[in-house]
Amino acid sequence: MIGSAGHTHRELRRGLRFEDTQSESDVHLGFQRLMEDLSSDGPDVTLNVANGLFLQRGASIIYDFTQKARTHYNSVVSTLDFHNSSVASTKTINNWVNESTSGMIPNLFTQPLDPLTTFVAVNTVFFNGKWLTPFDPMMTKDREFDTGAGKVQVPMMSGTFTLNYINIPELEAHMAAFPYKGGRQAMYIILPKGQATANLDALEQELSAEKINSLIGKMTPLEMRVWLPRMRLSFKSSLRETLKKLHMGSMFNPAAANFSRLTTLPVWVDDVVHETVIEVSEEGTKAAAASGSEFNRMGTSRTFIVNQPGILSIRDEVSGVPLFWGKLVRPEALRT
Question: Measured between alpha carbons, how far is 287 from 61 in angstroms, rounded to an integer?
């Protein structure tokens, strides 16, 4: 947003829901404080937010833009020769992403970038957390996960834990929180009751940020038997059409985009690519045995069985910011 101007800037402010009363400096300082507050690197939890700005060598870039990017967003600013070395430039960016995510996303861009590229902005979030109470690997057994389109075998971790929990009868769902060591972050899983595939889309429509925060505030500790896949979840998509639906489309239009506070050149956004990888194991999450009869006891209030699609979020408990958010639909078995 710091490089945009005019109508493009107003669209981004509205789309990102910044109040008109907030000054631009307040917005940037708010992001700076949030990034400083969220970042952590310890033996039990690592959270790294990184921003990379890659500019065409020789392009005329507004000095104020690079200063704000470095100061408020801790951005790495580099120059590359997209025009003459598109393949090498793409590799450089992919290597930066690979390093920033500790190898979890090795190839953000699978094809060489357009030689006419002038500017590439990349944001990465890497999270690696250990459960407050880990699962016992000896209790992990292969079980069925019903995707709705068929059943797949996944290694299913299990154990008895005291977790924050809430039953949500008005949404025909329930939610449990899996805390990480240190208490700063937790994974929340919301499961529809009954046939999840029939209810998941409807559930998602009902879950605004305000609703979720209200439900979290009502959760209470409960000892329960838990089953959770040892899994890898991955998602990659262009956000171009999504952002257009959120009325942030002018930045994609060569005739309408205004980034005059970034460069003196007439530039626009070609695409926004997002990729997420989350891995869940007995030890914790890297963003990245019960009997058969117990496994199928869905009716009791003291079981939480993740064997069908649901909604997953990793949340910073202090700020309330969701670090990751998505649908758990078809987990890939994480083998050790």
Answer: 34
| Cα 54 from Cα 78, distance rounded (Å) | 5
All domains of the chain in start order, with CATH = 6-129+238-274 (3.30.497.10), 131-230+281-333 (2.30.39.10)
d(CA 149, CA 153): 13
The owner of tokens 């109470």 is 133
What are the two backbone dihedrals, phi and then psi, of residue 209, each rounded to the nearest 5 degrees? -60, -40
Residues 121 and 2 sit within 8 Å (Cβ to Cβ)? no
Is 273's pLDDT higher than 80?
Answer: no
Model pTM score: 0.83
Half-sphere exposure of 79 toward its Cβ, with a 13 Å CA cutoff?
8
295: Cα within 13 Å, side-chain hemisphere = 18
pLDDT in tens, 292-318: 223 333 344 478 989 989 999 989 888
Q: What is the token pair recorded at 306?
A: 């993740």
What is the b/e burial string over 111-146, where b = at least 16 CB atoms within 10 angstroms of the residue's CB? eebeeebbbbbbebbbbbbbbbeebeeeebeebebe
